[in-house]
């Protein structure tokens, strides 16, 4: 018997999950929780093998499910976690698996076609296994390829710091003050950035704009939701 607790704040989704789980006699639904606080209290009571949770949960509706999975790595590493979400975003998948894939699964709600798929994920993570929807794998591979092609990869961490401040419209003096550098050091970093990004040989102002636009476009693409 696998003891499962579910984190889901949508009433209709709760009902759907409950009906599917009712067809699985080997899985016991311990509780249906609407917040991570309720999940925590249920786990503290003991006897939970697997947590299945959405990513966006009250009260913040941001990334509570992912944060909770990371927290369990520290407090209850024996508990498996299934992220069951409609959101297909590489950032979430990377964060879920960054401490290892053991006992972790990432599934997409709309792509679970049969109860057997959900049963397999629950039983797998309960014994330290891992399950990932193929679409999630595709997005992760595409994100890795995109990142590998990015010219920003050639910049040092300090140059990225400087470029991020350039993108905010900071002057060289302001950047120097923010990063505790001399103005001359900032100028050297910016010239190195221009060279590494192979920007057109235009005015310094134009090159700053080009560099800032490149940086901002990369940041936007990295944070854009994937469906």
Describe the overall structure.
With 227 residues, the chain is of the alpha/beta class. Strand 5 (104-108), helix 5 (115-126) and strand 6 form a beta-alpha-beta unit. The longest helix has 20 residues, at 204-223. The chain has a 6-stranded parallel β-sheet, sandwiched between helices. It has helices spanning 11-21, 36-44, 64-75, 90-97, 115-126, 134-149, 157-167, 172-179, 183-196, 204-223, and strands spanning 2-7, 27-33, 50-53, 80-85, 104-108, 130-132.
Multimeric status of the protein: single chain
Q: Approximately what portion of the residues adopt beta-strand conformation? A: 5-15%
SSE string: EHEHEHEHEHEHHHHH
Question: What is the share of helical residues?
Answer: 40-55%
Tally of structural domains: 2
Number of helices: 10
Q: What is the molecular shape?
A: elongated
Major sheet description: 6 strands, parallel
Q: What is the CATH class designation of the largest domain?
A: Alpha Beta
Structural class: alpha/beta
Write the layout of secondary structure elements.
Blueprint lengths: L1 E6 L3 H11 L5 E7 L2 H9 L5 E4 L10 H12 L4 E6 L4 H8 L6 E5 L6 H12 L3 E3 L1 H16 L7 H11 L4 H8 L3 H14 L7 H20 L4
